């Protein structure tokens, strides 16, 4: 396997470069064979690299970028007026062949636009998709896509998302013949709209895929499917609604615990002794959405990620680069499209 | 106020008529001034009514229906081949003027089709919508619609859902000038698709409405909006995904509690002492989705509802009938549509 080099946009995210460099320090130790190219404003990053003893570390290379894309920059504008942004410079290390994956916690719209413009989609791939892994009740992971790269999709695009998601489940989670499903408002064949029904017919026809039918939202975490496909509008709302519910429950628990010291004591006791079974569900571990369908690996970290969460996004980038996911997707898409001919 | 009479389809739901009659007994005592018309198979219902001492109760009237719509009957088929179903007979008590609201735990698709056919939409209303109340972090409720009556909607339909939802929030929750929002994959004006953007423009123009803009899924439970509008596909997936996450968390908690008797002891202790603050979040209390936009009140109870949950659906029916919700929606829709002229 060739040596990996991961480009990191150090300037994106709400918490500034400090959490990025803290995450980098962890990654440098975890992956001694991987190189990291940190992109951002030199003056701002040098003291942070010094702080973590990374300034002259053989695995770390600092690349200066003059501009920063702000969280409220419009995607198109960021593309036209900020060609020297840390995000764009980091993406260019991929097309230059210097790096194999890129991680950014910056403006999602700008990342999708800049990545699409800089990297292009793989041959045959209609649209890139934003994909995340979700924990499920069987102890494994389910891959959900699209999470918002495409407000609406035609059925062929949904079909391709199924193909790409299956490659991810197979190579990142080691699932043979991943079960692919379409998210719908019912399980019966007649449910939903023409787009999902046509996508279902297309997926069912394809002999190389293990399509299991429609699933409803209540099976998003049940593990019934390894890959759950929907358009970006539906996926975004589904994922964020779950985020909203989780926040609500946690707030309510906090109120309960704050109402008596004894409850807090009980809770800490329970927490200490059961953290192993809960640990895998921590949102931090699932930080790092993949923008798949492009010619290189691009990972979007949550804007408000902590250092631990950003580290998970770096891990995701290493895993996808290590598995050469874009190459695998390219071959699978080619194989599936040729089946049709 | 005229005397209320609530029609109850006793044959719908996975748990059979026994939970319906158990819920009825509770409702009869809670609402001594309300009459109840129980519709279903006489031979099956009589022993159950006897069991709960309701056979000769002055508030309870049994109406025989020969047919039952099964959970797997196709909606159109149920309409054509089962004109004597308990569901249809119960709906007809509304058009006959004998009852003011109807509750059913039966086949959702069949209920929507039979209700639409039997009752028709209110003048000016394009489409009925399925609506539910959700608890929120401010201690109040937010109304979410549509939950699946319409797989796709045009912008005028979404606009009308906003109008109808606001009437519900105003009269059922007592919120003056309810904050109306559209569920979208981002908060910026440019986000989403043409349908939501046009609906947003339409809502913003209307002076009689308090439209606050787009919200994302993570604000579904925050209380930022009193009314959250989306098409039935998105609403169905959002609500069911939350259901799926809640099930996952509860299962995970059960595993934790089952791993040691001490944890169970702690939990029961905590549960007893904090049940008040958690009680309002129990799903049972939110059972009963309203099919609004029709000329009469129709409430859909969850198919797997317990007696307690079915009782909540009856309460919802009584509240909407008491507030004459269809009449109020009719006037508001008229007023809003005339503003446009």
TrEMBL record, chains A, B:
Q: Which SUPFAM superfamilies match?
A: Isocitrate/Isopropylmalate dehydrogenase-like
Q: Which reaction does it catalyse?
A: a fatty acyl-[ACP] + phosphate = an acyl phosphate + holo-[ACP]
Entry keyword Aminoacyl-tRNA synthetase: no
Q: Where in the cell is it found?
A: Cytoplasm
Q: Which UniProt keywords apply?
A: Acyltransferase, Cytoplasm, Lipid biosynthesis, Lipid metabolism, Phospholipid biosynthesis, Phospholipid metabolism, Transferase
Q: What is its main location?
A: cytoplasm
Q: In which pathway does it act?
A: Lipid metabolism; phospholipid metabolism
Enzyme class of the recorded protein, top EC level: transferase
A GO term for molecular function: phosphate:acyl-[acyl carrier protein] acyltransferase activity
Q: Which HAMAP family does its entry note?
A: PlsX
NCBIfam families, A to Z? plsX (TIGR00182)
Q: This protein is called what?
A: Phosphate acyltransferase
